[in-house]
Structure to design on (228 residues):
C-alpha cells in the first residue's frame, strides 16, 4: 500500500529531516512511528499525503508514484488518505455534522450519500447525539472523535495520525485508541506518530523508530524504547 525507497528530505536551510528511509506498509497494518522530538516523524507523515516532497528517493501510495504524479491526480490520491491532527483543525463555525459532511462535499459526493455516510461515521465514533453542536461546545476527546469521523468519512484506505492523543487526558486517549483499533479492524491501514509510551507498550503494534532522520528500528509488536 505504501512504499518508500531510499527517501531523503533536506530543507532549504540544509537540515536533513530524513536520511535514506526505506519501508513498506501493507494493507490493514497498524504501526506507530516513534522517536525523539525533531527526529523526522512529522516529515515522514507529511510525505505520505504529499504535503512535503522528498529531496531524493521514491514514494508509492496505493500504486501511485508520488513524484511522477500529475497535479490533477493529487486530490484523487489524497481522497484515499485520511489525516488526523493533534490540534483537531475543525471548522469553528460549522456543526459536528457539517464538519464531517464537508469532507464529502469537497469531492462533490451526492447529497443523499453525504447524509447517509456522515450519520454512519458519527454513530461509529459515538457522536450521533452531538450532530448540531459546535466544536466549542465539545470536550477535547469529542473534538478529536469529530476529526476522526471527518478523516474516515470518504472510506480512505489509510489514515495518517500525527499525535492524535497528544492534547488529551489518559482516559480519553484510551477511548480514542480503542476507536482507532476498531477502524483498523475494519481494514483501514493506520500510521500513527506518537510520544505516548504507555499506549505503544500496551497495544503492541508494529513500531518504526526514527532517530536523526534515519529508520533505526522496524519491529512487529514492538515497544516504545525511549524514556521521553
Amino acid at each position: 500500500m505504501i512504499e518508500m525507497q531510499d527517501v531523503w528530505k533536506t530543507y532549504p536551510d540544509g537540515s536533513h529531516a530524513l536520511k535514506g528511509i526505506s519501508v513498506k506498509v501493507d494493507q490493514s497494518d497498524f504501526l506507530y512511528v516513534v522517536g525523539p522530538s525533531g527526529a523526522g516523524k512529522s516529515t515522514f507523515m507529511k510525505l505520505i499525503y504529499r504535503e512535503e516532497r522528498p529531496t531524493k528517493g521514491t514514494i508509492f501510495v496505493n500504486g501511485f508514484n508520488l513524484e511522477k504524479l500529475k497535479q490533477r491526480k493529487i486530490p484523487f490520491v489524497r481522497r484515499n488518505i485520511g489525516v488526523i491532527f493533534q490540534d483537531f483543525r475543525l471548522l469553528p463555525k460549522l456543526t459536528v455534522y457539517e464538519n464531517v459532511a464537508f469532507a464529502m462535499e469537497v469531492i462533490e459526493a451526492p447529497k443523499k450519500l453525504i447524509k447517509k455516510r456522515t450519520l454512519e461515521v458519527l454513530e461509529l465514533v459515538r457522536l450521533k447525539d452531538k450532530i448540531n453542536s459546535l466544536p466549542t461546545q465539545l470536550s477535547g476527546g469529542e473534538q478529536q472523535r469529530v476529526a476522526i469521523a471527518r478523516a474516515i468519512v470518504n472510506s480512505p484506505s489509510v489514515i495518517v495520525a500525527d499525535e492524535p492523543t497528544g492534547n488529551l487526558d489518559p482516559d480519553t486517549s484510551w477511548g480514542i485508541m480503542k476507536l482507532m483499533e476498531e477502524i483498523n479492524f475494519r481494514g483501514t491501514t493506520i500510521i500513527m506518530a506518537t510520544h505516548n509510551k504507555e499506549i505503544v507498550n500496551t497495544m503492541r503494534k508494529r513500531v518504526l523508530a526514527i532517530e536523526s532522520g534515519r529508520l533505526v528500528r522496524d519491529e512487529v509488536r514492538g515497544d516504545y524504547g525511549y524514556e521521553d
